[in-house]
Amino acid sequence: MDTNEWVEAQLKELSKMSKQYEDRAFYLALLDLVEEQQKRLIQSQGEVDGRTWNPSKW
Amino acid sequence: MKTLIIVAHPKLIESGTQKFLKTSLTKMEDVTWHVLDVTQPHFDVAAEQALLQKHDRIIFQFPLYWYSAPAVLKQWEDEVLNRNFVYGTQRALAKKELGIVVSTGDPQRGFVAGGDEQFTLSELLRPYQALANKAGMTYLPPFSIFQFAYLTETAKQRLVIDYQQYITNAEFQNFHGRELWFEDQLKQKLADSPDSQKLTQILTAIQDNREDLEELGWTLSMIKDDEDE
């Protein structure tokens, strides 16, 4: 399990098990944020790879 | 950043939406919840103006009544926002922000050209945008809540955090600003949580992700600059 998978698993649990409503809401939204970070990391890395692989500059 | 929420609701006690929003802010700092009293004949202009001056982000919060705010907000505007204060010699609101939190019982899909309501909320709220312009304020994108009573439990939970950010996050409009806000909130929770070790690890992972994204962003902008040459 990599770090982000571990983080997501922890946040899922916190978003269900925290005592305060506001805390459950916070961890749910934080999980959304971590998922969005993952998506953006993959997209940005892909864009870097794609732009670096530029035959017109060969 | 200090935020003033001016709540205009003639039946505030009966409003589940307003109660929900108020509860969402219980732990938020630098927020003033200011209810406009519908029973008083006139407002104390000096006191209201002093309150405005003490804050950086001003929020008008109300349910949509006939495509506008309840009358008490207009009365407050007419009495408190006099010429000198707003755009005469004082320009007391210049450089502040104006945000609108508006709720409606009608569905979101109606607020579009050709829809049941014909107009978007941004169009209907235009007088506030004009006011912000005249006052030299920055107008924030309106925060709208459609059919609160029909929201699912998870939608309500997401609403809590979105609303907290609209009220307290100076940079809520960009992802980087939202990342930093979550980090700050998590740091505050760390202090008095039995899970502090776990939360520290989560915080570190989120910070690492943010820093990686920043680095990729710089790399991309360098590659793009290079492509332009």
From TrEMBL, chain B:
Protein's UniProt name: Flavodoxin family protein
Organism: Pediococcus parvulus
Domain Flavodoxin-like fold: start-end pairs: 1-164
InterPro entries: Flavodoxin_fold, Flavoprotein-like_sf, KefG/KefF
Keyword Transcription regulation: no
SUPFAM superfamilies: Flavoproteins
Keyword Iron: no
Superkingdom of the source species: Bacteria
GO terms assigned for molecular function: electron transfer activity; FMN binding; NAD(P)H dehydrogenase (quinone) activity
Key words of the record: Oxidoreductase
